[in-house]
Amino acid sequence: MLSSFTSRKTHSSLIIIEDNADQPSSYLFQTFIHNASLQHLKVHVICFENPVEKWTRILNSNVNIHDCFSDHRGWNNVNEENDLQGVYQEKGLLGVVQELLNHGDGKPSVVCIDSLTPVLFRHGLNKCYRDLHALLSIARKDEEKLNQLVAVIHEDAVPERWDTLEQMRHLATTVFQIQLASSPNSSGWGLLHVTHRKAGGKIVKQVEEYRIEKDYSVLSREKKNQQLEASEDVDPTVAVQNLTTFKLTLNPQEEEARSQLVLPYTRQGRPKGQSGGGKVFYEPDAADDWDDEDPDDDLDV
Fold it and tell me: Which portions of the sequence form the region Disordered (predicted)?
């Protein structure tokens, strides 16, 4: 499925890419930007985590790169030169994107956010969620205005990690969770989990291997569950034995000794013709109180 999203054959209004320090998603993020810039779209990259210079060196010249990193708190008083950072301080992510859309040239816009993590720390989960929800509503109502949002989130560096990730996954239409990163300089395959919510509400989940080529094309294939296939050939007794340090099986000598063992208080044989029903054995006692009268005779019927 990944290749259909990067090539834009399959549309998704809000794509979130989850990565971590060990498995970065920068090359996959660049792939979405590069492929969108080749089409009749206006591509915006909003820098919350990295300086603008990082992206100007590697992205196409027709990509619009916006600085919300260098003075995102207004400490350097440079907002006269960059009004967008002032908008970010006052109105957050929603205000920044709306400012870009209001100054568009009529082309559908694709907005790529290099990281939501600084936004979460700056404005909190509630504000970030509301802003993304509002932008998603705009994208669904008018794709000619806002065609797509693509955002990266560092799952190992967000505040209130589990709650934040669950909320972001719930909001996104597509989530890519990087398990093993791939780059154009490596011939190896990466690994990721894909969760996509279709327009009708159906959710599709898949584990895929992927590889990013030097021209930013993507090859992807479904990951087969080799572990499940291999487990079908394993002896269940051996599998259970591996779960404990106790010996669960008997050797032939131990099995023979067990069969010959006579347990106490057990009858070893049964006379011929004796049925298997139960019997009650009672020995009368001298202290027993026997009453020969029928107790029902006392009833006044």
Answer: 261-301
77, 104, 13, 144: CA torsion to nearest 10: 170
Quick: pLDDT tens for 42-71: 999 999 999 999 999 999 889 999 998 887
Distance CA 244, CA 242 (A): 6
The overall longest dimension of the chain from CA atoms, in Å, is: 118
Comparison of pLDDT for 239 and 154, the residue scoring more: 154
Note the pLDDT tens digit of each residue in 260-292: 887 776 555 555 555 556 777 777 777 777 666
* Sheet arrangement for strand 42-47: 64-67, 42-47, 109-113, 146-154, 14-19, 174-180, 190-197, 203-212, 218-222
Mean pLDDT of 73-93: 71
Architecture of domain 2-229: 3-Layer(aba) Sandwich (3.40)
Q: What are the tokens at 76? A: 């350097």
Q: If you search the block for the tokens 């209004």, which residue do you land on?
A: 13
The residues spanned by each domain of the chain are 2-229
